[in-house]
Design brief:
By secondary structure, this protein is α/β, with parallel strands linked by helices. The protein has nine helices and seven strands. Strands 3-2-1-4-5-7-6 form a seven-stranded mixed beta sheet, sandwiched between helices. Helix 3 links the parallel strand 1 and strand 2. Helix 3 packs parallel to helix 4 and helix 8 packs antiparallel against helix 9. The relative contact order is 0.17.
């Protein structure tokens, strides 16, 4: 799916991951955020975490994303929260962003470890940005149990993309970071992430001429994602934000 298709699908989502506002606030509490701390968020989407934490805790920072549609929503949210002077949003390839070394207290990438070609590579993208003692936040899927072969195609993954929770811990340890906390999505979080997309796509299809070039792809995306989630995702696919500290 193209970026444009994701912009259509996630039009009604504020948080572009299976994470509720309550769990996002919990994550901020876990990180012991303080006024004046700086936060780098790669693949920041609509900036809900960065802007929300700036409002609640007095933090600041930088969000980076490829989508101008998402970044426009992020800037509007920052203005709504009165934190436009504290947070900035930059359009660009998050995998190529060069932060000032050791200048952030929090460095995060939630649900987009493809920017570093996987978990280990994304950790290495975030590591140089952190000040000593800083925390790294990675949002990553995992398997509740080993799925059948047909689930991989249905969920758009490869067999070695993700592992179990304990296997994810092994990957963190191999990458030289310690897992110090975590906030895991539950079934309702997944439903509230995916189901609004079905409605958004349905509404887009309803008001878009049938000969529009994006219509076939959006119909396929809707059918594929809906069936994959209901058939396999709810049983096998987990997701969490893992709070890490580099060794």
């Amino acid at each position: 799916m193209s970026l444009r298709h994701h912009e259509i699908a996630e039009a009604d989502n504020r948080i572009l991951n299976p994470l509720s506002q309550e769990k996002l606030r919990l994550l901020g509490e876990i990180c012991r955020l303080k006024e004046g701390q700086r936060h780098l968020d790669l693949a920041c989407g609509k900036g809900e975490m960065l802007a929300g934490w700036a409002k609640r805790y007095g933090t600041g920072g930088v969000g980076v994303d490829l989508s101008e549609v998402f970044l426009t929503a992020a800037r509007e949210r920052a203005a709504e929260f009165g934190v436009s002077e504290s947070v900035t949003f930059e359009r660009g390839d998050a995998g190529k962003y060069q932060p000032e070394p050791a200048s952030f207290d929090i460095a995060s990438c939630l649900g987009a470890t493809w920017i570093g070609d996987g978990l280990a590579g994304t950790i290495e993208l975030l590591r140089p940005a952190l000040r000593p003692g800083g925390l790294m936040l990675i949002g990553e899927p995992y398997w509740h149990e080993t799925p059948p072969e047909e689930a991989y195609e249905a969920l758009g993954t490869e067999p070695d993309d993700f592992v179990s929770l304990s296997g994810t811990l092994d990957r963190f340890e191999a990458a030289g970071v310690d897992l110090v906390e975590m906030v895991l999505a539950d079934g309702d979080n997944w439903d509230r992430y995916y189901a609004p997309q079905w409605f958004a796509i349905s509404e887009w299809l309803r008001r878009t001429p049938a000969d529009h070039p994006d219509v076939p792809a959006m119909r396929e995306f809707l059918d594929h994602q809906r069936r994959g989630h209901l058939t396999y995702g709810k049983r096998y696919f987990g997701w969490g934000v893992f709070v890490l500290r580099p060794r």
